[in-house]
């Protein structure tokens, strides 16, 4: 077993792993990862890649195992909810798988060899798997960096925060991932046909394009729903403040005991009517012997006397 190709692919995978961590922290709104998590995840995943290759697992099983590893690793590293971790693991795995398939198909065309030359049987003489794998991880790291540059305004966190949008992207991701896994079966067919290689090349591009459109649609939907919720909350807050303002105004312009309007309100109302040139009448009412009622029965009887007259 040659060490140099594995060392090169390890460096490329380290770049992919670093781009994944940077993207998740910047876009998904996750907390900073645990100390040493990036190195631990890189070592664990690359050892898993190497072990699966040496055990000559089928490529489909290989990538399914890696997706499950990503699920638990992202959950552990970022302490995020399971549903967010599942979507992140699926999307990261899909980027890695799609980039690897694109690189393998491109190398198969460039080297004019069948795709079986890049199977998981690294013990087979002439197996060139490490070349497209290294290129695939480099391409995957580049795609994750481009995604981080394009999605700079919390779009990913918006999608994660909406159940309907998250489920839609998850469903599209699962379909795309299963489709790419089915394309992996071509690497066990010893056919050196250009049309087959171009078909596999097209599959990766199609999945990336369809998933990008699905994510854009999910983001727009989630953004509209979030703005609607924010508008409803704002309207409710404004209505509550208006209600509080009306209550305060009512307290200011009305006498607490009798419920009659206060003198300040009456003066303001008179000024308003006079300013508009409206006719008005002003009547004064004298309450007979209020002092005598207060002296005889106390202020409580006096208050009842006033409320009865006001009523």
Sequence of secondary-structure elements: HHHHHHHHHHH
Q: What structural category do the secondary elements indicate?
A: mainly alpha
What integer is the average pLDDT? 84
The domain count comes to 2
Share of helix, binned: over 70%
Q: Largest sheet, described in full?
A: none
Which helices and strands appear, and what pairs or packs with what?
Blueprint: H1 3-27, H2 37-54, H3 59-78, H4 82-111, H5 130-150, H6 155-160, H7 163-183, H8 194-253, H9 263-275, H10 290-297, H11 299-310
Helix pairs in contact: 1-2, 1-5, 2-3, 3-4, 4-5, 4-7, 4-8, 7-8, 10-11
Account of the 3D structure:
The chain has about 300 residues and is mostly helical. The protein has two domains: about 5-235, no CATH class; about 265-310, no CATH class. The chain is built from eleven helices and no strands. The chain has helices at about 5-25, 35-55, 60-80, 80-110, 130-150, 155-160, 165-185, 195-255, 265-275, 290-295, 300-310. Helix 4 (about 80-110) runs parallel beside helix 7 (about 165-185). The longest helix is centred in the C-terminal third of the chain and has 60 residues, at about 195-255. The relative contact order is 0.09. The mean pLDDT is about 85.
